[in-house]
Specification:
This protein has about 350 residues and is an alpha+beta fold. The chain has eleven helices and ten strands. It is globular and about 60 Å long.
């Protein structure tokens, strides 16, 4: 964290005036401290004149895609989920007047917890005796999210209710094909697997709120090892909960996994549950049939390959500065993601 005299993207005087006029319990002026992570959204800890803390969040500066960095979506989700068992920061205030600081922004509760990005974070923050509790809390929170009825929460219009996986297949296959020339990289498996997924598409079942990027990096882990809050809801939508589960399991590395060079994931050390144990706990808690879980595992591995392929293409095509980027590592990740997709498909076959 870094205290800043002039926070990026914020007109401090305007924001603090807006807070004074619209939010009770926060007293400017604030001390502004930049928080790491957050998908490039400009996220700051606010310490007010009485020592109370909060968090403010707005999109990055510059021209954005129409649905990118949607603060209103995040605000709607934490507001709706606040009364449920899903732990989220308390929603404090939302400003949709861009004249205040150039973009919509919202303010939420400051939660005492830390995201886990790598092994060092886990070693520093999660004692070995608490790692089992973390795994249980992690999967229980996801099960609680998938137990909520979107319509009852007022989130029935969060996204389309037709086939989530089919829509994702269309989006990311289009991305893969559009990136081939820039990346100077194609892999026939990307096309083969896309057709396989379409030919074997499971029935979606009940539509639920899906986080879309659920992992330890988007959870604030409390000092005792439990998930204190889930954050970064900007790509959340309505969809298939089993796709959301598979994504979370793919993020949960375990000892013995083949990893990209230099990777040090937060969960591949003693004391953490295996992916199989987490899946069993989810099935027990939700009653859902996980017999087709490998389909969703494979789909998410393929999707991850497509996402990295698109980023890699922008670097290779000169659309993004490659300073500090490890292009060899990115290319390796694309191949490894397709390898893992192939392994899951072979388990089905």
């Amino acid at each position: 964290m870094k205290q800043e005299e002039q926070p990026e993207g914020y007109n401090v005087a305007n924001v603090e005036s807006w807070v004074s006029n619209n939010i009770e319990g926060l007293t400017p002026p604030f001390k502004w401290t930049r928080l790491e992570g957050g998908h490039s959204n400009l996220t700051y800890q606010l310490d007010d004149s009485n020592g109370k803390q909060a968090v403010i969040r707005r999109p990055p500066q510059g021209v954005l895609l129409p649905k990118a960095h949607d603060m209103s979506r995040e605000w709607a989700l934490i507001s709706a989920l606040g009364p449920t068992p899903v732990p989220v920061p308390e929603a404090i205030g939302f400003c949709e007047n861009p004249d205040v600081t150039g973009a919509w922004f919202y303010i939420m509760e400051m939660v005492n917890g830390r995201p886990l990005y790598n092994g060092d974070d886990s070693r520093e923050w999660v004692a070995e005796e608490n790692r089992g509790l973390l795994g249980e809390s992690f999967i229980d929170v996801l099960a609680d999210l998938h137990a909520q009825d979107p319509d009852s929460l007022g989130l029935g219009d969060l996204g389309k209710k037709d086939s989530y996986v089919a829509r994702q297949l269309k989006t990311w296959y289009r991305s893969w094909n559009a990136s081939i020339e820039g990346a100077k990289l194609d892999d026939p498996r990307a096309h083969e697997f896309q057709q396989y997924f379409l030919d074997h598409l499971p029935d979606q079942g009940s539509v639920k709120v899906v986080h879309g990027d659920y992992g330890c990096h988007n959870c604030l882990i409390g000092a005792g090892g439990r998930v204190a809050a889930v954050v970064d809801w900007e790509i959340s939508t309505l969809g298939d909960p089993l796709a959301d589960l598979a994504y979370a399991l793919n993020q949960w590395a375990e000892a013995g996994d083949e990893l990209a060079p230099g990777a040090d994931p937060p969960t591949a050390m003693p004391g953490f549950h295996s992916r199989g144990e987490l899946a069993s706990r989810y099935a027990e808690k939700t009653g859902r049939d996980l017999s087709k879980l490998d389909y969703y595992i494979a789909f998410n591995r393929w999707k991850s390959a497509a996402i990295v392929h698109g980023v890699y293409a922008r670097y290779m095509d000169g659309k993004k500065s490659a300073d500090g980027a490890d292009l060899d590592e990115m290319r390796t990740r694309i191949g490894m993601s397709l390898d893992r997709a192939e392994e899951a498909i072979n388990r089905i076959r």
